[in-house]
Amino acid sequence: MKKNITYQQENQLSMAEFREILVASTLGERRPVDNTARLEAMLRHANLIITARNEGKLIGIARSLTDTTFCTYLSDLAVHQEFQKQGIGKTLILKTKAAYPMAKLILLSAPKAIGFYPKIGMSKHDNCYYLEPLNKLT
Predict the structure, then answer these.
(1) Residue 47, Cβ neighbours under 10 Å: how many?
(2) Distance between CA atoms of residues 77 and 75, nearest Å
């Protein structure tokens, strides 16, 4: 299905397109796709969004937060299911890293994608922690 795929930085993406690609990629299973205010905030506060489009249709996204010199947190990497296994995710990662090459690129893998990242040369880090509800902090 790979046709004319274009990649670009697109920091003004619409919430509707963002929601659509999350759902089409299965990442929507772990994102608040039914909370438009939250999705809009996720887009508004991201400062690096790289997209992949096929003949104008959004088929992939890498949404990140970065300080541009030390770290880039790639918080969403989503490729439409019909376009997976064609190198689009890898290209989105490469273009994200290339935007700020001095910054270490960091991400948390979706369960279905754990095997993907080592295959493309990313290193696993065992010392990651996260906190969701504030009341869990003791």
Answers:
(1) 13
(2) 7
Structure tokens at 66: 């970065």
Domain spans of the chain, in order of start: 5-124
How do beta strands 104-106 and 57-66 pair? unpaired
Tokens of 124: 């696993």
- pLDDT, one tens digit per residue, over 86-121 is 999 999 999 999 999 999 999 998 888 888 899 999
CB 42 within 8 A of CB 51: no
- Which of 15, 23, 92, 28 is closest to 60 using CA atoms? 92
Domain 5-124, second-level architecture = 3-Layer(aba) Sandwich (3.40)
Q: Is 73:103 a contact under the CB 8 Å cutoff?
A: no
